[in-house]
Write a structure and sequence with these properties.
This protein is of the alpha+beta class. It has helices spanning about 30-40, 60-65, 100-110, 140-150, and strands at about 10-15, 20-25, 25-30, 45-50, 70, 75, 80-85, 85-95, 115-120, 125. Strands 2, 4, 7, 8, 9 and 10 form a 6-stranded mixed beta sheet that branches. The longest helix is centred in the middle third of the chain and has 9 residues, at about 60-65.
């Protein structure tokens, strides 16, 4: 909230990022749109870049794709790819779940420590062109797409 203190409207975050996660976070004053973007029944796509403390083993990669048992049920990634074919500590993961700390919990359940986590895609929005700590207003077109739900 400190980053947007100069925003003239009263807004609130859509979804959440834990304190040690960076990336795309949207703020709005539209409660209905926020509900559509965060409620699990709407199944919205999120993509994260993950850096682990050790290379992800191929068998663990398969487990994450097939489904990992966590305390609140089975969760699986929709997509999971190595970002750098030579460094298997760096991954891209696509999920639709909105469960709390889900990406960290997936990897921790298999014995990995998440060193960095960056949400690079949320509800059709990316952080392209923004430096860490910067923010911008959505375009009218982006707002219309969000309201229509015409994104993945």
């Amino acid at each position: 909230m400190d980053l947007i203190k100069d925003c003239p409207k009263r807004v609130f975050p859509v979804g959440r990022l834990d304190k040690s996660t960076t990336g795309v976070l949207m703020f709005t004053n539209d409660g209905e749109m926020a509900e559509k973007l965060t409620h699990p029944s709407y199944n919205k796509k999120k993509i994260y870049q993950v850096t682990l403390d050790q290379p992800l083993k191929e068998e663990d990669k398969e487990k994450i794709i097939e489904g990992v048992e966590l305390s609140d049920g089975v969760i699986k990634a929709d997509e999971l790819e190595y970002i750098d074919p030579k460094d298997h500590r760096k991954l891209g993961i696509e999920i639709h779940s909105g469960k709390n700390r889900i990406v960290r919990r997936i990897f921790e359940s298999l014995g990995y420590d998440v060193r960095s986590l960056d949400r690079v895609y949320f509800a059709g929005l990316t952080k392209k062109g923004l430096k860490k700590g910067d923010w911008r207003y959505l375009t009218e077109g982006e707002v219309n797409i969000l309201k229509m739900g015409a994104y993945v």
